[in-house]
Design a protein that fits this description.
There is one protein chain. 50% of the residues lie in helices and 10% in strands. By secondary structure, it is of the alpha+beta class. The protein has a domain of 95 residues: Arc Repressor Mutant, subunit A (Orthogonal Bundle), CATH 1.10.10.60. A 5-stranded mixed β-sheet has the order 3-4-7-5-6. A two-stranded antiparallel ribbon has the order 1-2. The two termini are 19 Å apart.
Length: 363
C-alpha cells in the first residue's frame, strides 16, 4: 500500500456484515477469509486496508449469492451489475448508458428504485426508497450509489466531479462514514432520498469503453471501484502526497503548505473545508493509514515505524496510534499479522477471473 492510499473505517465492515446473519451465515469465517481480526469490530476507531475490505466483499458475495450481500429482503441476482455495465458499454453517451443501466434494475429491486433526473443544469442519480426504514437497506443503497458513480466515471474514462451527495437521516456519530472523502464532495443529510448530483453537461460525454475493457473492469472489481476514481487532483490528495514525502520529520504548518501550493492560507482552509477536511485531521489520517500499512510488515519494529512517522519517542507514537484506532500498535499488530498471513495466501492462490465473467462486486 502506498503512503497516499487510504483505509476503510471498521464501521463499514460492521454495516456490510448485517445481511449474512439474517441468512444464517456465521460472520467469523468471512472475516477470517478477508484477514480481518474479529476483535477489531469492537474498536470503533479501527481501520482495515482496502485489500481486506475487497476480500470481504468477495467472500460475502460467494456466501450470500447476492450482489447486495443479503442486506435487502429480496436478493439481487448474481451478474446483475455486470449486465448493467455491459448495457452501458453499448450506449453512445453517458446519459444513455445511465438511463439504460438504471432501468435494468427496476424489476429487480423491491426496496428502492434508481433514477436519473435532470434538474436545471444539474443531473442527479437518485434512489427512491420504498418500504420501512432498515439499516441493511440503508447501507445497500450507499453501496449501490457508489457503484453508479464508479460505473459512470469508468464509462467515460474520467472521474465525474460530484457536486453534492444527499443522505437521508442524520450524520453518523463519531468515526464512520468515509463518503465525503470518496466522493470528494460535501455530504448533505436530511434528504428525502439518497443520491448524488453533477453537472448535466457530463451526460453528453461519449462512452469510450468496449467489450475488452469491460472484461478487465469486471475482473478488477471491487478494488477499482474503491480507489480508481478518487480525485488525485483534489487539494486534500495533493497535500497527502506532499506530506507523505516528509513523514519522517516534523510536518509543515498549514501556512507553509499553502506557500508550497501557491495559495493563501485562507484559500487552502476553504478548499479543504469544501472537500470535507481539516488540515490537522488530514495529517492524522495520513500518519494513521501509513502506520497501519507499516504494522503489516513484520520486518519493521515499532521503533522503526515511530521514526518513519516522525515521532521522536516510541511512546508518543503509541499514544497517537491508540487515539487514532482505539488500540495500541503492538496489540493491532498481534491481532492483524496472523489474519493477514492467511488472507495473503488466499490472494496469491485465488484463480484469475474467467474472461467475460460477470463478477463486479462493489463497496
Amino acid at each position: 500500500m502506498s503512503v497516499t492510499q487510504h483505509t476503510v473505517a471498521i464501521s463499514q465492515v460492521r454495516q456490510i456484515l448485517q445481511g449474512a446473519p439474517r441468512l444464517g451465515h456465521d460472520t467469523l469465517p468471512l472475516l477470517q477469509r478477508a484477514g480481518i481480526p474479529a476483535a477489531l469490530l469492537e474498536s470503533p476507531l479501527a481501520r482495515v486496508s482496502l485489500a481486506q475490505y475487497a476480500l470481504l466483499i468477495r467472500a460475502l458475495r460467494r456466501c450470500t449469492r447476492d450482489e447486495l450481500w443479503g442486506l435487502c429482503p429480496r436478493p439481487l441476482r448474481l451478474g446483475s451489475f455486470g449486465q448493467c455495465a455491459a448495457q452501458g458499454v453499448r450506449a453512445h453517451t453517458l446519459e444513455a448508458a445511465l438511463r439504460q443501466g438504471l432501468r435494468h434494475f427496476h424489476g429487480q429491486l423491491d426496496d428502492f428504485v434508481p433514477r436519473l433526473l435532470l434538474q436545471g443544469d444539474q443531473a442527479r442519480v437518485q434512489l427512491v426508497r420504498r418500504g420501512p426504514p432498515d439499516a441493511g437497506v440503508d447501507y445497500a443503497q450507499k453501496a449501490f450509489l457508489l457503484f453508479c458513480f464508479g460505473l459512470a466515471s469508468w464509462l467515460v474514462a474520467r472521474r465525474v466531479p460530484v457536486l453534492a451527495v444527499d443522505y437521508p437521516g442524520h450524520p453518523e456519530r463519531g468515526p464512520g462514514s468515509d463518503s465525503s472523502r470518496v466522493y470528494q464532495a460535501p455530504i448533505q443529510h436530511g434528504a428525502a432520498h439518497i443520491g448524488f448530483s453533477f453537472d448535466a453537461r457530463w451526460l453528453a460525454l461519449p462512452v469510450v469503453q468496449n467489450p475488452q475493457s469491460l472484461r478487465e473492469f469486471l475482473a478488477q472489481a471491487p478494488a477499482n471501484l474503491l480507489i480508481r476514481y478518487r480525485d488525485t487532483s483534489s487539494v486534500s490528495e495533493r497535500i497527502r502526497r506532499l506530506l507523505s514525502r516528509r513523514l519522517d520529520s516534523e510536518l509543515p504548518s498549514l501556512d507553509a503548505v499553502s506557500a508550497l501550493m501557491a495559495m493563501t492560507p485562507q484559500t487552502l482552509r476553504r478548499r479543504l473545508h469544501d472537500e470535507g477536511h481539516g488540515y490537522q485531521a488530514l495529517k492524522d489520517a495520513l500518519r494513521r493509514d501509513t502506520a497501519i500499512d507499516h504494522l503489516s510488515r513484520p520486518e519493521l519494529t515499532l521503533v522503526d515505524i515511530a521514526q518513519r512517522l516522525g515521532f521522536s519517542e516510541p511512546s508518543t507514537f503509541h499514544r497517537a496510534f491508540k487515539k487514532w484506532t482505539g488500540v495500541a500498535p503492538g496489540e493491532y499488530r498481534n491481532t492483524h499479522l496472523p489474519a493477514q498471513s492467511v488472507a495473503g495466501q488466499r490472494l496469491r492462490h485465488t484463480a484469475p477471473a474467467r474472461p467475460g465473467a460477470a463478477r463486479p462486486d462493489l463497496a
